[in-house]
Amino acid sequence: MSAQPPAEPDLPRGIALAWGVAANPQRGPKREMSIERIVDAAVEIADAEGLGAVSMSRVAQSLGYTTMSLYRYVTAKDDLLVLMQEQGIGLPPEPDPDLDPTDWRGRLRSIGRAQLELHRHHPWLLDIPIEGTPVTPNNLAWMDAMLDALSGTPLDQGERVAVILLVTGQLRWQSLIERSYEVAADAAGIDPQAIDDGRSAVLDAFVTAEEFPAVRLAVDAGVFAGEEDPFAFGLERVLDGVAVHIAERAAGAPAAGPPIPPEPDGVTADKRVRDARKAVKEAEKRLRDARKLERQAVREARAKAGRQPD
Prior knowledge:
The protein is about 65% helix and about 0% strand. With about 300 residues, it is mainly alpha-helical.
């Protein structure tokens, strides 16, 4: 007896649309309306104004149709977000032909650069929540590309997925920080370089060797005014750690230990624990206030000393 094919799952409409297995609407505007046009319009709005500006009514208005017309094609905004993300991320880049197929590090770095460019081109992608394992075609294609980059390593399947989470987490953090810089510049209506220059001026003026000796050394070394990319350093150190683990696995070391278990519910609910954590927060606040007073006193003492005659 031949094996029966797996039953087709009952999918949310957005995911079904992404896989191309959703039924087309039976009624609605004629050929001018389509899923593709709806998603194109939504992405255009998000690119220009951010994800918060996207609504079913706004997309319908941009297309010249009623909101109810859209619901015949996309039944909910969440479904629209799924399709927007699919279009926004597209497919991963093909492996660089100049890279050795066994160069897992170079291949992950290449995919990482492509992810950063996606986030710079469509920053609203960062606002779409991560809801577990990807289940749409383009998301899975990116995962497949990263897993394939690790296919020649001694890591087991679970470790490979863990490496992907580690690397993409670093890239997502970098993208969020970069976007925050751009948002601040846009809000101020000035060039991002001017903001960087202003911050450098503040650090140079207020960071003293007496109050912040370690930071002062970094300022004097030109760290905050340098041209080097600190994010690239972070990614390389992540890859360094992966390389060490791969070498250890190749030498016969066991896989990573069991996951750290979550804190039992009873611990969080215990009144003594809650009271102790509240006391810690209050103590931290008092410490911050005390340090603020100390900085003010130092500034006043320095100003007074500067006014004294020689």
